[in-house]
Write a structure and sequence with these properties.
The complex is a heterodimer of chains A (about 525) and B (about 725). Chain A is an alpha/beta fold and about 525 residues long. Chain A contains 24 helices and 9 strands. The chains are: A alpha/beta (about 525), B alpha/beta (about 725). Chain B: This is Thiamine pyrophosphate-dependent enzyme.
Chain lengths: ~525, ~725
């Protein structure tokens, strides 16, 4: 093909100045793109326009990205020749029903400077590839938002999903409202509302969502705010008998470096909530130890405060039983699944304790003895190793978990606690040891705790990843870029389940350390 | 019952002359069939023509009034064979299927049909699944038209043209005794528009009349010596008759200025795109008025030599816009020009890309390239170069924006089958896994990444047939086939073959009670009662009828543990021959469509109802996402906890959850974690249920209050 500069030509109008308006909508299957398209056609026709829509959604396209396309033109008595699909550089209005779909629209060249009005909902629907990552695989929305601003002529972007949910409706209604509010089509507001009213299903909720989005798009109402970080946890109740001990911990907390106090406060509450006040003191010992070796900006102390809390609050059956039997938990479930007062909630918990979980929840001596017994293991595998469905809305099921959670005072004597504490001590000591010479590396070593999470096999896999990441430590110590490498190796370990990226990273380290 | 109901659209099918019919391209075709006195209709569903079958299913009463026979063919081969009714009888028949996959399946019958020829008009409506949004290999139906000598119509993508093409199709077929294929591209199937209706016509001869007065003609039967006669007939009589019909009835259209020194020859289906490209280059108005001469081929096969040569006469250069490859039309026209000693330059592939859909951008660039070379004066200087600001300051989003391929729906009963398969492989090692066509093919995508090949509908197990382990204790192949593919031809091609050849692989029949991927049409084993079709024929019985001894029926695929254990049993069993697991649970999309309104109605009427859904305890979830690696459910996603102590997002289940149970079952089977809970919301509970619940709540509340009073509590 002859290579020339790309031709991105403009459409020319008809003899009476009538113009074809092109509109594309990118949605995730199931978002109601078809409904939106029909509404747009109806509103165009109601305003004396010819309109045509197409979609590339085959019936088989279930949850993937789908494109809908509409062309319209003022009716002057002749039928225009409408194109059947959006063309790069030739889209006047681009509607994206999700943030990454907006990014896809930009990527595909459907958003053109000086031409395209981009109407995008900024909420996220994670793609499968983002969800399966053991760490945080979610795409960076900021890059998309930045590109949207550069690529589009006009951007109307806010969380239209939240608006729709608030109105008890679905996103097609709020997208339609944002389209109307954007003024990109020369149609009056009431003609849109008439179309919704005529559609017959959930009209009131749709009109509410339409109105909210219309106002946001017009700029006459604030857009829904993103959910913030809960940086504070309130202390609800301190029993009389524990008041002095708790105050002593709070005093110690106040003496920590100011930069680390906020996170340490969260950590302390987590640890005390997990076990007891003495455990909180043990936690603060660790943080104070880190603080003594630290200096401004006290990043090491912050890392210690965060990861020591997580390390001390390891996930065991007691913890799960405790959390599942709390009143606050029951209320949260009721809110989440939306149970009304005249309804009854039945609640089934899914448990599958293996031999390991069983034995480690026993007193250390007994658990260790059982673990050494192949006959006990075989017996367990044959008779007890199966999924347990526990109804926590029944007295029997709730009672069972209640009893398990009531073992909390004896947690320190259980086998699991022994092994966890040994692991924590080894990890923390090694970080403190490094801190004397390289505080940044020490903080990274503390952050490696992030790798250990989950239950059963997941927990075992996390531990093995932790060990492999830590195995790089002797090779890295003393290097000026040790902390950077430690972080890179950890990031690699979180990238995939099997640890392929981790293998690669370790190989690289070995190559330069050798 | 199909996924989408067309009861409203069906009413439009009754519309008489002068009315304005509104709807999708595919609906326009159904109306046009009735207006042209079609006598029988069949076909096999598949994107993008599934809706045609659904509309006819919903219109059976109306069809009966007109004496039109309609059936859901068992396969495209069946559909094509059905057209045999037009061989001896003057009855118009139409069948529809997706192309080229359906045409592949149908080609045996089509070749026979085309050899003997037809008396009544025989129309094959092809849903051309090519270009963006396609789900199949990229090939051309054109090749079938050429090899079997059937005519191929490719009308302009607007409803009046499509409707006109149906009429032309029947008349052309009758004028030339040749079956005619009419191509409908994805977007013209789904294009919404309107056209002026005509009156429906009763078929001049109903199929019942033909049965009462049977006819035969030895010369129409495809056997020697008639086959040699047929071949001569094709070139001596049928071809010239077809060309005459096309010319006399102006099937192909001319636009623009005949005096133009350059011309465009376009396939009808690409016309709108070409006009838009010309408009963007300043060479056409929005109504298609242009100074460039255009020959629009609504009949792309046969080509009418005289028409094309006349068109090229006096032109310096002609651009052929022919989508898809090989470039059959370009080769034919090039040959025509050469043989007739013409000097007009023919451009086509070269300025336009050889392969792939002709998108707006490609057409603008291709036509511009052609004009620059052959008529540079035509291009306004402004459009001859870039007139848009460069995009260069926009960062490359390809590393940011995740791919979003289609996948299993929320609550899909096939998800647990593949979760189980993944667990089987974790336990027994990786296996060779053969996939088939259907929703279950989404297993090849993350998070399952299961399946190595797909060889055609119903051919999953057949495609594993060579992979027979000589070591009886070695690994066996696993193959999948859906219930749709099973009845389409899998029963014989896959199950019968495996049974006969004593193949020892595991065959999983994914039975979701419908041809689900194509829109939930009923099939032989559907569990619903269908007044016009015989359903409820168990797959397992058919499999046993094929001689398979090891058959397991699983009636709740969500039982991941049972799925996994049954698969392991099949892969380790000493039993000879194929091991067949029929994994049955109803397609959730169809189930919800039926149950959701019923549940809402019952609740409203005050009856006791139970709505299940799942949830995740976010403080128990550790954010490893192992559950998602065994799910991929749209309702199971990640969210921030807002807790600064935690780095990774946790699992969360949103309001779209239908409570299928996969999350809990997977957590159990794979021993993941105890964060999942199943909530069952009981509406209008019984009095005793309420009493019990409140009593339990009081006791639990007392216990909780007691504990909270003794420890530090935070919120």
């Amino acid at each position: 093909m002859t290579m020339h500069a790309p031709v991105i030509a403009r459409r020319s109008p008809g003899p009476q100045g009538e113009k074809i308006i092109t509109l594309a909508a990118l949605a995730v299957g199931g978002q109601g793109g078809g409904v939106l398209t029909n509404w747009i056609i109806d509103v165009a026709e109601a305003n004396g326009y010819h309109a045509q829509s197409t979609s590339v959604a085959g019936v088989a396209q279930r949850t993937g990205a789908t494109v809908y396309y509409v062309e319209m033109c003022k009716d002057t008595g002749r039928t225009p020749v409408f194109a059947l699909s959006p063309s790069e550089g030739d889209v006047d209005i681009m509607i994206a029903a999700e943030l990454m779909e907006a990014g896809r629209a930009v990527m595909r060249g459907f958003v053109t400077p000086g031409r395209t009005t981009l109407i995008a909902s900024t909420h996220r629907i994670a793609a499968v590839s983002e969800k399966v990552v053991p760490g945080d695989g979610r795409a960076d929305g900021r890059a998309v938002i930045e590109a949207m601003g550069l690529a589009a002529d006009q951007v109307i972007a806010f969380d239209m999903e939240t608006l729709a949910t608030r109105a008890g409706s679905v996103i097609s209604a709020s997208l339609f409202g944002a389209l109307a509010g954007s003024g990109a089509l020369p149609f009056p507001r009431d003609s849109y509302e008439t179309v919704i009213a005529r559609s017959g299903k959930g009209v009131e909720a749709s009109l509410r969502a339409f109105g909210l989005a219309y106002d946001c798009a017009k700029g006459t109402a604030p857009v829904p705010a993103a959910e913030g970080v809960k940086a504070r946890i309130r202390t609800l109740n301190v029993p009389m008998g524990l008041r002095n001990d708790w105050q002593a911990l709070e005093v110690r907390l106040d003496r920590l470096p100011a930069q680390a106090q906020e996170i340490a406060a969260l950590g302390l509450k987590k640890v005390v909530d997990y076990q007891d006040i003495a455990y909180g003191a043990q936690y603060l010992d660790m943080i104070e130890r880190a603080a003594r070796l630290d200096a401004a900006p006290f990043a090491l102390t912050q890392a210690a405060a965060k990861y020591a809390a997580n390390a001390l609050c390891y996930d065991d059956i007691l913890r799960v039983a405790d959390l599942k039997t709390r009143a606050s938990r029951q209320q949260r479930v009721r809110d989440e699944v939306r149970v009304k007062d005249d309804q009854v909630l039945r609640l089934t918990e899914y448990f599958h304790p293996r031999f390991e979980e069983f034995t480690t929840t026993l007193p250390a001596w007994f658990g260790a003895w059982l673990q050494g017994s192949s006959r006990a293991e075989a017996f367990y595998a044959r008779h007890l190793d199966k999924g347990r469905r526990i109804r926590t809305d029944s007295l029997a099921g709730f009672g069972l978990l209640w009893v398990v959670s009531a073992l909390r005072p004896w947690r320190r004597s259980l086998l699991r606690h022994r092994s966890e504490m040994a692991h924590v001590a080894q990890w923390f000591d090694s970080a403190m040891d490094i801190a004397a010479t390289d505080r940044t590396l020490a903080a990274e070593v503390l952050a490696n705790r992030r790798l250990i999470k989950g239950y059963s096999d997941t927990h075992a896999r996390g531990l093995s990843k932790f060990d492999r990441v830590m195995s790089a430590l002797p090779m890295l110590r003393g290097r000026p870029d040790a902390a950077d490498w430690m972080r890179r190796i950890r990031t690699a370990a979180l990238a995939d389940e099997k640890g392929l990226a981790l293998d690669g990273a370790l190989k690289t380290v070995r190559s330069f350390a050798a | 019952m199909a996924e989408r109901s067309f009861k409203k659209e069906v009413e439009q099918l009754r519309m008489g002359a002068g009315g304005t019919f509104r709807g999708e391209g595919i609906l326009a075709v159904t109306k046009a069939l009735l207006e042209n006195g079609v006598g029988y209709v069949g076909g096999y569903q598949g994107s993008p023509i599934s809706h045609l079958m659904d509309v006819f299913s919903d219109a059976q009463d109306l069809l009966a009034e007109y004496g039109v026979h309609f059936e859901n063919s068992a396969s495209e081969a069946t559909a094509a064979a059905m057209l045999a009714a037009s061989v001896n009888y003057p009855i118009r028949g139409a069948v529809a299927f997706k192309s080229t996959v359906g045409t592949n399946v149908a080609s045996d019958a089509l070749a026979n049909l085309a050899s003997g020829g037809v008396t009544g008009g025989a129309l094959v409506i092809l849903g051309e699944d090519y270009g963006e949004g396609s789900s199949i290999m990229q090939e051309r139906s054109h090749a079938f038209a050429m090899k079997s000598q059937m005519w191929l119509l490719d009308p302009r993508p607007n409803l009046p043209s499509i409707v006109a093409a149906v009429g032309h199709g029947f008349r052309l077929s009758e004028a030339s005794n040749t079956p005619v294929m009419m191509q409908m591209r994805i977007k013209s199937c789904h294009v919404h528009g309107h056209f002026t209706a005509g009156d429906n016509q009763r078929p001049p001869m109903a199929v019942s009349e033909a049965l009462q007065n049977p006819k035969r003609d030895l010369s129409r039967i495809v056997l020697p010596p008639a086959v040699f006669l047929h071949e001569n007939e094709k070139v001596d009589r049928r071809w010239p008759n077809a060309v005459n019909y096309v010319l006399e009835n102006d099937v192909n259209e001319f636009f623009g200025n005949p005096a133009s020194k350059i011309g465009l020859i376009v396939q009808g289906g690409t016309y709108n795109g070409v006009i838009r490209a010309l408009n963007r280059l300043g060479l056409s108005d929005i109504y298609g008025e242009t100074d460039i001469h255009i020959l629009c081929l609504n009949a792309v096969y046969p080509l009418c030599d005289s028409q094309i040569l006349d068109f090229c006469d006096g032109k310096d250069a002609v651009l052929l816009v022919e989508e898809g490859q090989p470039n059959f039309i370009e080769q034919a026209i090039g040959h025509m020009l050469y043989q007739n000693g013409r000097t007009t330059v023919l451009a086509g592939k070269g300025v336009l890309p050889m392969a792939g859909e002709y998108t707006g951008k490609r057409l603008v660039e291709g036509i511009a390239a052609f004009l620059r070379e052959h008529a540079p004066g035509l291009l306004p200087p402004a459009t001859a170069k870039t007139n848009e600001p460069a995009h260069s300051d926009i960062s490359d989003l390809s590393t940011v924006v995740p791919a979003r391929p289609p996948g299993f729906c929320t609550g899909c009963p096939e998800r647990p089958i593949f979760a189980a398969t993944k667990l089987v492989q974790q336990q027994l090692g990786e296996h060779h896994i053969a996939s088939d066509i259907g929703c279950h093919l989404f297993s090849i995508m993350p998070p399952f990444d299961i399946g190595s090949t797909t060889m055609g509908y119903g051919l999953g197990p057949a495609s594993a047939s060579a992979l027979q382990n000589r070591d009886k204790d070695g690994k066996r192949s696993i193959s999948f086939v859906g219930d749709g593919g099973f009845w389409h031809n899998g029963l014989t091609s896959s199950i019968g073959n495996a049974s006969f050849n004593k193949h020892d692989g595991l065959i999983v029949i994914v039975d979701n009670h419908y041809a689900a991927a194509t829109g939930g049409q009923d099939i032989l084993s559907s569990r619903a009662t269908n007044k016009s079709r015989k359903t409820n024929n168990p797959i397992a019985k058919a499999v046993e009828g094929m001689g398979v001894k090891w058959v397991r029926q699983i009636d709740r695929t969500y039982d991941v543990t049972k799925m996994r254990d049954t698969m392991i049993e099949a892969l380790t069993s000493k039993e000879e021959g194929p091991k067949v697991i029929v994994a049955s649970s109803e397609c959730m999309l169809n189930r919800q469509r039926r149950e959701k309104p019923a549940l809402a109605k019952a609740t409203k009427e005050g009856r006791r109802t139970v709505r299940p859904r799942f949830g995740v305890d976010e403080d128990i979830c550790t954010g490893d996402h192992a559950c998602m690696r065994l799910s991929g459910c749209p309702s199971l996603s990640v969210k921030d906890t807002g807790d600064p102590l935690r780095d990774d997002p946790v699992a969360a289940i949103d309001q779209s959850c239908v409570g299928c149970g996969n999350c809990g079952e997977v957590a159990d089977a794979a021993v993941l974690c105890p964060s999942f809970y199943q909530a069952e919301i009981v509406s209008n509970p019984t009095a005793s249920e309420k009493r019990r619940a409140s009593r339990t709540a009081r006791i639990i509340g007392w216990l909780q209050g007691r504990r909270d009073a003794r420890r530090l509590t935070f919120a």
